[in-house]
Design a protein that fits this description.
Elements lengths: L1 E7 L3 E8 L7 E9 L14 H20 L4 E6 L1 H5 L3 H12 L4 E2 L2 H16 L6 E6 L4 E6 L6 E5 L3 H8 L7 H14 L1 H9 L5 E5 L1 H9 L14 E3 H11 L4 H4 L13 H14 L4 E4 L4 H15 L6 E3 L8
Helix pairs in contact: 1-3, 4-12, 5-11, 6-11, 8-11, 9-11
EC number: 3.6.1.11
Keywords: Hydrolase
GO molecular function: exopolyphosphatase activity
Length: 326
Amino acid sequence: MRLGVLDVGSNTVHLLVVDARRGGHPTPMSSTKAALRLAEAIDSTGKLTRKGADKLVSTVDEFAKIATSSGCSELMAFATSAVRDATNSEAVLARVQAEAGVSLRVLSGVDESRLTFLAVRRWYGWSAGRIINIDIGGGSLELSSGVDEEPDVALSLPLGAGRMTREWLAEDPPGRRRVAMLRDWLSTELSEAGSVIQSAGTPDLAVATSKTFRSLARLTGAAPSGAGPRVKRTLTASGLRQLIAFISRMTTADRAELEGVSAERAPQIVAGALVAEASMKALGVETVEICPWALREGLILRKLDSEADGTALVETIPATPEGKRR
């Protein structure tokens, strides 16, 4: 089965095309991205602007056609923090349906956390024991802990890297005082969540997912993406502290020149590093292992599982030659 997974995030829209079957390893066939920065298109009233909605509709329409031309039998389309937070999300979703022919489902933060945990569990297997996972998105931070495929605890907090950049680190480069203030604030904000996660049980493995963590690991010496997904990559608290001291003094343009940091990720990598540091501290973790699977893979796995038991988490859209839903 060839599936398309369309992920509408706070920063980017990402289409992943995979060949998948129940009991098998989903094989990526192609990946297409567009940087829309939807979170920055939210106006003072909390609405996604007309310009932002226009970009979203046209991008979803284009990517749905790519999915069709790639041979996808179905397209799973979902949106996370930016669309979830918009006060006019229902109107925006209706436009996407009417003009692009795609039913875009908004995932709750807790569902993001649960599905990401499922992907992590499948990647590491039962022998990993209790896993805790940290995932940093543009708008939210997800934390989870469990010994099964369904986590015992799944949390979502509005502490994404993009959100923290907009709210705390507007200057370029950010001043030392603002970095210190955000560090202290994050420590306070994560105190309760950290206690909840830790109370679920002592982890046998601490894991991190998301592009933010992959970039941070690369900046602290982990293998490049070209080395393949099965190369072990880790991020340590000490390495992260040293990295923050270095990149927080750099401009966005300079950070974009670093290997492992994309142009769209460069503006928010400092905030992302501070959220990562605070999360690891709150969970009492000194080292995290970087998992190549995350939310998109979790959705694929849940889709394959639902095929067997007749349930559905995300509505799937049969692909047509025009890329429209019948």
